[in-house]
Structures are given as structure tokens and as C-alpha cells.
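Give me C-alpha cells for this 442-residue protein.
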Amino acid sequence: MSAMTPPDEDRALSVQTAPKSPGPGPQTGSTPLPAEPLPAEHRKLPKAAARPAPVLALLRARWPWLVIAMLVGTLLGLLMGATQTNKATAVLRLTGVNDPLRVKQVGQTYEQEAMSPPVIRLAVANPDIKGTLPEDLADRVQATWELDTDLVQITVENASGQQAVKEANAVLDAVIKKATTDRDALNRQVKEKVIARLNDPLTGSASAADAGRRDELGKGLGISELNNILDALSVTAGSRATSFIPAGASRPVAAGLGGIGGLLLGGLAALGAGAGRRRVRTPAELRALAPELTQRATTQAGEVAGRLLESGHSTLVVLSLPSTPSSASRFAAAVANHLRTHGSSVTLVNAIALESGDSSSMALPDEVWVLRRDIRQDVKSYFSTDVLVVACTAEPEAVGLISGQSDLMAVVVAKEGRSNLQQIWDTVAAVESAEPIVVLAP
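Here you go.
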């Protein structure tokens, strides 16, 4: 072909018009045989190791996640605030119990007693809360003995604050009423037993003085037992419920807390998803997510041409990611034009198949044989030009010919909004020795 075309003329090369070289050395007019196609299981670039993206950059990149999560959290907070309840507390006081252990026993007993079915049934019979169902009230009553005190708090929740006050007082009255009833019943039993003992006739012979002392002893014993029972089980109203407070956060507070919670969950989801599947939208986003990459714009083809000339390399490979064949082809042509402007002769090989813009049908033509190392190291002899510029898809067949080699420059062309960060990382990692430049095409 060198006989047909002047050595200093730039041209696009195809496999049909390529020089042939059957032997080990270059010969003008001979065609190197293309490499054997890769097996199907190797037709995919190895996956590069995940690279952690800066946290703030990742959050900025996934800001819609944060906004949606915050809105959902705020909405849930408003819904929870709409069902806000109020609570009122009445206090039951234990009296006549001086032993700390006994206070604990009695306090815990009344803690359970205040929530027992008999007390609840007595409470709902109170005219102030007429119509309240026992099972409904039982679900909303909570009694708690305060440690190291003689107080038992009775708390009732209700959507209506005033109704909560009435129900708390009704339960308090019911506990006191039941305690009084139980105490009176026990007192009657004790009195009956004491009276029966005192009325029993003396057996055997006894003097009048002995009979008198026995009568006094029986009376003293009965009085002592009665006093102990009365003191131990005496309960009064420590304080009645007069006001109520919200049982949960108000609607504004609930909305705020929900929004903050949603924002945190959205942030965790964004960080957990990582940046790999993120489709890069702008050059600024790519710089933020992957600051370690060398990035240039499509308008900087002149700079790439200058770097190639400064490096002393004679080969530039422009690798196209899916959805970027047109952009890669144009960028390769632009670099070739800049090289020509600098006085270099260029062979431009466009090995990208464009089939109606359908990236899924992109095939790798045979022109990639020009990426063989022996050809790249002797561009002048094979093509009679100073520089070889090759545009091809980032497929294993092409990438495998230049992977691990530093005697060339590589450019990876991605597409805004179409190429994800993992694709860029995989391709860059495969040609890392060539210190690749990433170009994000609009």
C-alpha cells in the first residue's frame, strides 16, 4: 500500500487494504493474520475491584434518594402525629407499711392489682366514663410502682386528654374501693374468729383470776391482729389526675423526626449501594466519585494529541464503552487532525461497527490486528506514517492486545448518563499500564 499512497499522507485503514507481513518482520504489501477469536467464556473484561467513593460525593450523586427518603419519612411522621394520644396519671399511696421489704411487696402487688380485670370492671362502672369497654380500658392502663417509695402511678392513654384524666381517676377509685372491700371482708373474718375464741367456755377448773386474764389475752390478741391487717393494706389517693400531656411527639415534631430518620436511612442506602452501578451524569460527578481517574473532555483532543507527542509513543488507542461508539470515533478523528496539524503523518483505523446506533449489536471488526505489539513497535515500517490512532470497542479481543503494556497511550470514552462507573473502572483497570485518560462524552 505504501506504493499506492505517499508515506506522509494520512489515511483510514481497513483490513482489505492493509499491508501484508507473512514473516516475522514487516514487509510492505503483506497482511498480518488476525488473532484467533476468544472463547465465549472470555468475551468479557474482568471485573475491577470495587473502589470506595468519597462519602460526600456519593451522597451528592444520589441526592434524589435522600430527598425521596426524607419526604417519605416526613409523611410517615405526619401520619403518626395525626393519631397522637394523650396521657393522664393518678397516684396511689400506700400507708401504714414501714418495713422496706413489705413496702416493695405491697407496691408490686398494687401495681398488678391496678391492671387486673376486677379493678377494670369496677372502673368502667364509674359514671364518669360510662360506655367504656373493659377490654378497651385494659389496653390503655399502665401501673408502675416507683422504686423505694410508697407510690404507685396509674397512667391511662386516650386520644381525648380530658377522657384520659377521667379514666385515670376512675381506675384510682376502683383500686381504693376494691382494697377497702377486700380489707373489710378480711376484717369480718378475723373478727368472727376472735369472737368465737373469746366466747369459747373455759375447759377444766380455773380460778376467776385465770379466766379474767385469759379473756384479756384474747381481746389483746384480736386487737393486735386487726391493727396489723388494717395498717398493712391501707391505700389512699396520693394525688388525683387533673391534667394530661401528649403521649408522643406532636405533629410538627413527628414530621421533623420522620424527615430526619428518612434522610439517615436514605443516606445509608446510598452508601450501601456504592458507586459502581451509578450512571455518571456530569464530568464534575465523575471527578467527585473517582478522583483517581485522569479525566478530559471531548473538546480536549488537542491536549491528548500533545501528550502523545510528548510521550514519544507512536500509538493511541481510543476505547469505546457501550453507547459511545460515535463519540469515540469522533474523538479519535479529532486527535488525528491535531496530530496532522503538528506535522505528524497519521494512520487512523476506525474498528468500531455502527449498526443503527444499537450498542448491543456492536461487533469487533478485524481491524484490531493493528494493535499487535510487533506492529505497534514499528508503525513506520508497516504504515509509512509517524502515528497510529485506533478507535475500537472495549472488548476483550482488543483490550487483551494492549493490556499490561505501556508503549502506547489509551483513552477510554464514556457517555454521560449512559456509562456506569463500574464499566469505566473495569476498562481503566484492564489498560492501567497505559495510564489511560477517561473522556466523558455529552
